Amino acid sequence: MNLRPQRNRNPRTNVTRFLCLRAVALLLLVAGMCLPALAVEWKELTAQEQQLLAPLRERWQQLPPQRQERLRRGAARWRAMSPEQRRRARAQLKRWHKLTPEQRAQVRQRYDRFRALAPEEQERIRRRREWFQSLPPERRRELRQRWQNMSPEERQQFKRELQRRRQHQ
């Protein structure tokens, strides 16, 4: 009596078995990427992370794992910044803290709208902002003042004119 399992010599069965194993492996890989981040103990942070995140030390363990992970990624980005980039980031953070909750909500909404745009449109807006930032401060003030003095109807007309010009370029 032969106790060895019979090997299937049918090539279709072997291919099917191989494809099933690949599908299961892929599902396990995707499931692993979707797992929530695990909480990290304060003592597990690197010395650099602890130094940058020191203000959060007392409440670190109460933070959700996803927030801990975002903070750690932010600390890594901070370490990678040049001194000039850090100076600009501090200035931006200072401006952010001065905003009212309503203004912050407005900024978040604008950001969400921007992220929903096509990549080409986002790039166009970035280039336009860089152009504006390259202008002398007096010219920027002048353009801002002109925009603020427009009525909503004039602003809409101005936007339509810009779109028309873009289409003819």
Question: Please, could you describe this protein's structure?
Answer:
The protein is mostly helical and 169 residues long. The chain has eight helices and no strands. The relative contact order is 0.04. The model has no long low-confidence stretch (mean pLDDT 85).
Number of helical regions: 8
Give the amount of beta strand, in percent.
under 5%
Number of strands: 0
Give Rg in angstroms. 27 Å
Distance between the termini: 84 Å
Short recap of the structure:
The protein is mainly alpha-helical and 169 residues long.
Topology summary:
Blueprint: H1 11-34, H2 47-52, H3 65-80, H4 83-98, H5 101-116, H6 119-134, H7 137-149, H8 152-167
Which short descriptors sum up this protein?
mainly alpha; single chain; 8 helices; 169 residues
